[in-house]
């Protein structure tokens, strides 16, 4: 599985997306990340392992604590991939707007005919 596949596979789960959203605020322990969810700590740890394997988070060491932190590079690569398609769609919408404007101009009554 390449990096982009791993990133999108990890992002496919809403719990993992919520964990990443929490990590935007800063580092957090597994217990802190598990608080808002009605699931066991081992289940949260499995989600963290998927995120870690995708490179979306890393874990540090602070005495007994292993805080998780967000890693931006895989998200930036996913954003770059999506951006190419956004530009294609933006160009398509601009051409559609121009066509609609031309059609409106053709249908509008000519003010010089009066």
UniProtKB/TrEMBL annotation:
Checking Pfam families in the record gives: HTH_5
Specify the superkingdom.
Answer: Bacteria
- Show the CDD domains listed in the entry: HTH_ARSR (cd00090)
What GO molecular function annotation could you give as one example from this UniProt entry? DNA-binding transcription factor activity
Q: Which residues form a coiled coil?
A: none
Q: Which residues form the HTH arsR-type domain?
A: 1-90
Protein name as catalogued = ArsR family transcriptional regulator
The scientific name of the source species is Mesorhizobium japonicum
């Amino acid at each position: 599985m390449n990096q982009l596949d791993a990133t999108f596979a990890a992002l496919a789960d809403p719990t993992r997306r919520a964990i990443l959203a929490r990590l935007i605020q800063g580092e957090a322990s597994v217990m802190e990340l598990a608080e808002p969810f009605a699931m066991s700590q081992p289940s949260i740890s499995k989600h963290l392992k998927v995120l870690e394997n995708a490179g979306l988070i890393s874990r540090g060491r602070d005495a007994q604590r292993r805080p998780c932190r967000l890693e931006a590079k895989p998200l930036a690569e996913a954003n770059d991939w999506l951006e190419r398609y956004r530009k294609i769609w933006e160009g398509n919408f601009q051409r559609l707007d121009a066509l609609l404007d031309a059609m409106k101009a053709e249908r509008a009554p000519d003010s010089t005919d009066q």
